[in-house]
Amino acid sequence: MTYLRKASIAALALLAAISLRPQSKADQPETVLVTLHAKPGSEGALEAVLTRHWSTARALNLVRDSPHVTLREAEDGDKTRFIDIFTWRDAAIPDAAPAPIRELWDQMNSLTEARGGRPGLEFRAVSVVAP
């Protein structure tokens, strides 16, 4: 076998091995469903923080543009729950979130309350089934 042919086979084997390796958490996007139980009287402030969170995350290139939706729901008559659905650019971002995002999370936590045995602010990984 010629040197060029051996080198080509070795290069193809290396490319195949790289493409077949499992992706690390950091390589994969992660869609999350965030539930926030607003403290009574803090609904407007919490909505504003959610808006700043999205704009900050976009400015820092931490999230994908879609899917993204923020929902507001009446809960137990006089209480409010927000649901925010978005996709982190990669799954490692929340574990190493930059300071501006952590500061917004602190604000969210101060504006939410535990309810029904659930924390005031809850992140869950979900899968998008249909757009």
What does the model show?
The protein has 131 residues and is an alpha+beta fold. It has a single domain (25-126), classed as Alpha-Beta Plaits, CATH 3.30.70.100. The protein has helices at 3-20, 43-59, 99-110, and strands spanning 30-38, 69-75, 79-88, 121-126. Strands 2-3-1-4 form a four-stranded antiparallel beta sheet. α2 packs antiparallel against α3 (99-110). The longest helix has 18 residues, at 3-20.
Main traits of this protein?
24% strand, alpha+beta, 36% helix, Alpha-Beta Plaits, single chain, four-stranded antiparallel β-sheet, 131 residues, 4 strands, disordered N terminus
In short:
The protein has 131 residues and is an alpha+beta fold.
**What is the fold named in CATH at topology level?**
Alpha-Beta Plaits
Task: Give the CA-CA distance, first to last residue.
Answer: 52 Å
Main structural class:
alpha+beta
Spatial arrangement of strands, main beta sheet: 2-3-1-4
Chain-averaged pLDDT:
85
Largest sheet entry: 4 strands, antiparallel
Task: Return the string of H and E elements.
Answer: HEHEEHE
**Count of domain modules:** 1
CATH class: Alpha Beta
Helix content: 25-40%
Q: From the 3D coordinates, which CATH architecture would you assign? A: 2-Layer Sandwich
Shape: globular
Gyration radius (Cα, Å) is 21 Å
What ranges have pLDDT less than 50 throughout 5 or more consecutive residues? Answer: 3-23
Share of β-strand residues: 15-25%
**Strand segment tally:** 4
